[in-house]
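Run: sequence + FE2/S2 (inorganic) cluster -> complex structure.
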Amino acid sequence: MNDNSIKLVIIENGAKQIIQTHPGEYRNLMMLLRDKLFLEGFGECGGMGRCATCIIKTKGINGISNIKERNEPATLSKLGFHENDIRLSCQLLITPDLDNAEIEIMEY
Ligand code: FES
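>> structure
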């Protein structure tokens, strides 16, 4: 395995699984989750940060990936989510900031 691999703990419906990836394998975290988990209706706007169907709860994200940019803060606050750990997965790039993070698929 290449040594810049990134390990993610994914929680879906209470079940945990570990997924390994590396920078550049996917355009963003939403694409990875959609590809690996076959989630229905996930990522409907294709990563524009507008639909919020790619919403996740996160734990253990580091660095600048904690900063919500572009459409993300506006889209989330329209839905009443102001917490730092609630994110749009399409706005998170797969970088070492995500290594060992916990990502929970949310239903809202
Ligand atoms: S895919 Fe639509 S907000 Fe993320």
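>> summary
The longest helix spans residues 29-37. The chain has a mean pLDDT of 95.
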